[in-house]
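Priority: medium. Attachment 1 of 2:
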């Protein structure tokens, strides 16, 4: 392990801890950062998925009351009251997570194989295009009148779980696409973000397990840098989640998506020409 590896791991943890809560792709931006830092694109995709475990811990602590409510409801869960009262959150998380696996696992294999065939510059440009597409989706969702719904239903669980599976592709914002789907379903914005972040916990753990299994161990990173990156992302994530949730209510993040996506496309083109 070199000092540079440790510094890159710490910086990666900071990036993950900040951008995870924004409706821009944390995986895409982290993969972009790692690729620029010299990581193989295929490994960068795997690392970006693995390092989400740190912010998953942050989300679990931040939403500990909701998690406790869902756990308490499990013993009394019945199919005929799956989405009634306290059962709703538990049912939503389970059904949506299953749908995420159905959609996301085949796309994960595709994403890693595709990333391995691309040069660094092209990979960066592809991430930029996907970020711009995410920005278009965010802009479209803002034109829809917001509702006052806050309790999930079975159709919501299926829809949100499926679109979260698509977010395993680098550049697609998990929080952005799931929040937008909930907004289109007339959810109150705070409830949409809450349901999106709650769903990130099992999804991120599953993606990390899939990554470790596919790589046969830690994906391209040694234990000490991995621990450093996870610790930093967890700490930074917990510090920023509340502040960034307030910012989400005030700033149109489609502007951020367009800006980052445009820079990635231009930067990726320059890298391709130079390299």
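Attachment 2 of 2:
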């Amino acid at each position: 392990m070199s000092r540079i590896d440790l510094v890159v791991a710490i910086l990666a943890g900071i990036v993950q801890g900040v951008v995870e809560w924004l409706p821009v792709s944390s995986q895409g931006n982290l993969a972009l950062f790692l690729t620029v830092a010299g990581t193989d694109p295929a490994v960068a995709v795997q690392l970006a998925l693995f390092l989400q475990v740190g912010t998953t811990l942050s989300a679990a602590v931040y939403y500990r009351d909701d998690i406790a409510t869902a756990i308490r409801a499990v013993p009394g869960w019945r199919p005929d009251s799956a989405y009634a009262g306290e059962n709703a959150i538990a049912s939503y998380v389970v059904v949506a997570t299953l749908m995420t696996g159905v959609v996301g696992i085949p796309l994960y294999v595709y994403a890693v194989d595709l990333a391995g065939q691309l040069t660094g510059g092209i990979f960066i440009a592809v991430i930029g295009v996907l970020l711009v597409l995410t920005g278009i989706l965010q802009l479209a969702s803002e034109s829809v009148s917001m509702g006052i719904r806050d309790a999930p239903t079975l159709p919501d669980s299926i829809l949100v779980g499926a679109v979260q599976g698509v977010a395993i592709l680098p550049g697609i914002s998990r929080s952005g696409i799931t929040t937008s789907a909930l907004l289109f379903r007339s959810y109150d914005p705070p409830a949409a973000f809450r349901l999106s972040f709650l769903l990130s916990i099992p999804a991120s753990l599953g993606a990390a397990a899939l990554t470790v299994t596919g790589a046969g161990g830690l994906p391209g990173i040694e234990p000490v840098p991995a621990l450093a990156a996870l610790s930093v992302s967890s700490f930074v994530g917990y510090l920023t989640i509340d502040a960034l949730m307030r910012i989400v209510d005030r700033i149109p993040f489609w502007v951020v998506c367009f800006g980052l996506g445009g820079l990635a496309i231009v930067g990726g083109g320059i890298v391709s020409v130079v390299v």
